[in-house]
Design a protein that fits this description.
Blueprint: H1 50-56, E1 63-68, E2 74-80, E3 85-92, H2 95-106, H3 109-118, H4 121-129, E4 134-142, E5 145-157, E6 160-170, H5 172-192, H6 203-218, E7 226-232, H7 235-242, H8 244-261, E8 267-269, E9 274-279, H9 281-285, H10 287-303, E10 309-315, H11 324-339
Antiparallel strand pairs: 1-2, 1-6, 2-3, 4-5, 5-6, 7-9, 7-10, 8-9
Helix pairs in contact: 2-3, 7-8
């Protein structure tokens, strides 16, 4: 069995439709190129023209495969030499079996299962027969490093129903540029939704999260969640008597305490001294314990003259709540009831 060069594609050779020269076919008997001396007919599958393949895949490819979908035999071509003549450099009897074996050796480990699931003959042919084009991006391990490649598959030509053409090209530079741009955009977005003082998410981020939840409530796909509202006690008094710098430190201490309790949930600063927490998953399941833990900590803090926050929590009720604001309002009311225990503190 020959290794499928589909999974290697290490040489980036240009496949240009401008060069319409005949591929070096090989005799079935003597395997010599072009017109064999033995007088035998040239293998039909290895005498397709360069134009034939280039018309199917208008791009620069490291390798091009001519695959017989009836018996899975294949021929692999690559444009080599100064004349860029497309030459046969590999062939085999079972393209998909070869690909599966070599995937475990050459494809980056994190991409192997996705590659094998996507690149199944049945799925590929279903897309091709419906008139579509099958594409797949994945990473090969080249010189010990993951390198991005792109695979494209389509029909050879309308009058050739039993063959498809597969092209593989190196897209590492292109994808890495896209990933860098995405990272820059995400960083800018994160900065725009980050509170400058405390480092948690800001009101803009809360508004976006609220809208996403409202959309899921409207279409009936919303899962369980709860909202916790926290209000920092004594901030106005500290600002008035000790200055805003001391007030800022007071706020940051309160925020740190909230984040420590609800460490698996996003915390938002939605007002000058007000924070909101969206509870889902593990924190949602432990919501009563966590809320009680925060309130117990406040009793110790109040006795020791440390920062305190009032908090209230409310759970989303699917048959009752049409928006997040309904849940928020109940949590806000619960927070004000809790605030009454901090007599004289505003």
């Amino acid at each position: 069995m020959k290794k499928t060069v589909l999974l290697i594609a290490a040489v980036s050779a240009g496949v240009s439709a401008v060069v319409a020269k005949k591929i070096l076919g090989r005799c079935r008997k003597c395997r010599k190129p072009e017109k064999p001396a033995c007088g035998s007919e040239t293998d039909e599958e290895e005498t397709v023209t360069f134009t034939h393949l280039a018309m199917s895949l208008a791009d620069d490819y490291a390798s091009v495969y001519y695959l017989n979908i009836e018996d899975d035999s294949y021929v692999e071509y690559s444009a080599v030499g100064s004349d860029h003549k497309l030459r046969v450099i590999s062939s085999g009897d079972d393209f998909f079996a070869d690909t599966q074996i070599n995937c475990r050796i050459l494809v980056y480990e994190e991409d192997q299962e996705r590659f094998l699931e996507a690149f199944r003959k049945e799925k590929l042919l279903e897309i091709i027969r419906s008139g579509g084009t099958f594409t797949l991006d994945y990473r090969l391990v080249i010189d010990g490093k993951p390198t991005y490649y792109s695979l494209k598959t389509c029909r050879a030509l309308e009058f050739d129903p039993k063959h498809i053409v597969i092209g593989v090209r190196n897209v590492d530079k292109q994808i890495r540029r896209e990933l860098e741009l995405e990272e820059v955009l995400n960083s800018a977005k994160d900065l725009a939704e980050r509170d400058g003082l405390t480092g948690v998410k800001n009101k803009s981020a809360y508004t976006r999260a609220e809208q996403e939840l409202n959309d899921s409530i409207a279409d009936g796909t919303c899962g369980d969640f709860a909202v916790v509202v926290c209000d920092v006690n004594g901030l106005k008094n500290i600002n008035d008597t000790m200055g805003h710098q001391a007030g800022d430190e007071h706020l940051k201490s309160a925020c740190t305490m909230i984040c420590r309790v609800f460490k698996r949930s996003p915390v938002y600063r939605i007002g000058g001294d007000e924070f909101a927490v969206m509870l889902t998953g593990e924190d949602y399941r432990a919501r009563e314990i966590l809320t009680r833990q925060l309130r117990e900590q406040m009793k110790f803090n109040q006795a020791d003259g440390l920062v305190t926050v009032a908090c209230g929590m409310a759970v989303f009720i699917p048959d009752k709540d049409k928006t997040v604001s309904a849940v928020f309002n109940r949590a806000d009311a619960a927070m004000y009831r809790n605030k009454k225990q901090f007599s004289g503190v505003r």
